[in-house]
Amino acid sequence: MNEINNARLIRTETSRAIEFPDEFELPAGFDAPNTELVLAVQDDKVIVEARAKPSFARPKTFREMLDQMETIDVEWPDVDEGLLPLDDIKL
C-alpha cells in the first residue's frame, strides 16, 4: 500500500494529535486499541509507522491469570533441610 493522504495536526496546550482522514485505513490487524504509532523525523519529513501491540484477552479473575501462565518446571531446593521438626522445638 503506497497511498498518500493528507492529515491534520491538532495542537492543545498539553499535547498534539494527528487526525487521519476517514478514507485512510491502516493495514489489517492494526485496530485503534492495540496500535502504537512510532514517529520518526528524517530531514523535513515526519514518518508515522504503525506497530501492533500483542493482543491477548485480559484475565478477569486470578484463576484465569494463573491458567494463562506457563508451568514452571524447576527443581526447587528443600529450604527446611537440616531444620528440626516444629514439634521438637522448646522455647
Q: What secondary-structure arrangement, pairings included, does this model have?
A:
Blueprint (H helix, E strand, L loop, with lengths): L7 E4 L4 E4 L15 E8 L2 E8 L9 H7 L23
Antiparallel strand pairs: 1-2, 3-4
Give an overview in words.
The protein has a two-stranded antiparallel ribbon with strand order 1-2. A two-stranded antiparallel ribbon has the order 3-4. The mean pLDDT is 80. It has one domain: Pemi-like Protein 1, Chain: D (Ribbon). Helix content is 8%, strand content 26%. The protein is mostly beta strands. It is elongated, with a radius of gyration of 27 Å.
Contiguous low-pLDDT stretches (5 residues minimum) are: none
Rounded mean pLDDT score:
80
What is the first-to-last residue Cα distance? 78 Å
CATH class: Mainly Beta
Strand order of the largest sheet: 1-2
How many strand elements? 4
The percent range for helix content is under 10%
Count of distinct structural domains:
1
Q: Structural class of the helix and strand makeup? A: mainly beta
Number of helices: 1
The main sheet comes to: 2 strands, antiparallel
Radius of gyration from the CA trace? 27 Å
Strand content: 25-35%
Apparent shape: elongated
In the CATH hierarchy, the third-tier topology is known as Pemi-like Protein 1, Chain: D
CATH architecture: Ribbon
Element-by-element helix/strand order: EEEEH
Oligomer classification: single chain
